[in-house]
Design brief:
With 282 residues, the chain is an alpha/beta fold. The chain has nine helices and 15 strands.
Length: 282
């Protein structure tokens, strides 16, 4: 499996650049990436600014798994609230990216990966219950992603998307960083930790000592990581300083390569930097 720290190319939806609501964010990202000699690429034929959810999962240098992008939050009445659905096959055809297709229902925001493990919320079980048992689905995902471990954590009951990338991120092969937002809910926090520790992983918490307790602090875990940089959300609050200090401690190899990006316009829509990007090894 190609982990985030293995990637070297960053894609964004073309709409992030052209939609005036978000173009200032794109300009800041583009400017700060240029300081590191990084030029982002744009995805055509997208219907909104998101990218991670529908783009395929890169397994190795040549194989990309294109899952069935048909999540529950794009069903029925939700569809008019979320926006128009992007079709990944159209985007992949436009950028000439060949994929391996699967009937597994999934979205990329629910795939947090190391080289030999993938963490998903248990929402994936519910969304595939008509075609797979839990056991058969886990086995299928192991084969598709070519990993030893498929690790299921409980879905945040308040999160309509059920994404793991707002909850956890790998620090390295053996350690996972958890969103300190959940420390306010001790029972749920313990369930997440137990799910990870059962699989032999150790855990660290991204937590804050400031008094403001700004609700936007959940989004720091939704950073964008490649082998060269980490893009970290910022909001002009005290937690911005705490977040970058903690990431420097947990990812010391990225010291002086953690870039903060103002993300208010995007977080108001329910996502942050990992959500609006697609990263690959090319």
């Amino acid at each position: 499996m190609i982990s985030d720290k293995d990637t070297n190319t960053i894609y964004f939806s073309k709409l992030l650049k052209t939609d005036e609501r978000y173009s200032a964010i794109y300009k800041e990202i583009e400017s700060k990436l240029s300081d590191f000699g990084i030029v982002p690429k744009l995805l055509p034929k997208t219907k909104d600014i998101w990218a991670r959810d529908y783009m395929p999962i890169q397994v190795n240098d040549t194989n990309y798994v294109e899952y069935r992008y048909d999540p529950d939050y794009l069903q029925g009445n939700y569809k008019t609230q979320i926006g128009i659905k992007t079709y990944p096959d159209m985007v992949c055809d436009a950028i000439k990216r060949k994929t391996i297709k699967t009937d597994v229902v999934l979205d990329g925001g629910n795939v947090v990966k190391s080289s030999n493990a993938v963490i998903l919320t248990d929402k994936v079980i519910t969304e595939n219950k008509h075609h797979y048992s839990k056991t058969s689905l886990v086995k299928e995902l192991q084969i598709l992603f070519d990993v030893e471990k498929i690790i299921l954590i409980p879905k945040d009951p308040e999160d309509p998307y059920g994404h793991s990338d707002g909850m956890v991120r790998f620090i390295d092969e053996n350690r996972v960083l958890l969103n300190g937002f959940y420390l306010a809910y001790p029972s749920f926090a313990k369930n997440i930790e137990d799910s990870l520790r059962t699989e032999g992983l150790t855990t660290e918490w991204l937590k804050f000592g400031t008094q403001t307790k700004d609700k936007r602090r959940w989004a720091y875990i939704n950073f964008l990581q490649t082998k060269d940089i980490i893009l970290l959300p910022k909001f002009g609050i005290d937690e911005d300083v705490e977040a970058i200090k903690q990431l420097e401690e947990h990812y010391p190899e990225y010291r002086n390569r953690i870039i903060q990006i103002q993300m208010d316009a995007v977080i108001s829509k329910g996502g942050a930097l990992n959500c609006i990007s697609w990263t690959t090894k090319e």
